Amino acid sequence: MSGERICRRCLLFESGREDVLLDVRRRIEKIPDNEKCPDEIYKSRLTLCGECEHLIDGTCLKCGCYPEFRASFLKQKCPSKKW
Ligand code: SF4
What we know:
It is globular and about 40 Å long. It has one domain. It is built from four helices and two strands; from the N terminus they run αααββα. Strands 1-2 form a two-stranded antiparallel ribbon. With 83 residues, the chain is mostly helical. Bound molecules: iron/sulfur cluster.
């Protein structure tokens, strides 16, 4: 065991995984506007993720995605149908 703390129900920006967060933000910037989720919907999706039992250390264990990235696409869906 590394002894590192696992952050349950933490999104990437809360998990301290700065390198991954930076990479995800760069990828989000490249999403075409017509595919991007509007801010208000994006925030409500991440609120639901932040309350979800499947979110561990910035990763959704249900599908293996980073919710900050997945939720950025308007047409994407939560694998547990929460959004
Ligand atoms: S995408 Fe869905 S299942 Fe995954 S953490 Fe978010 S709410 Fe939970």
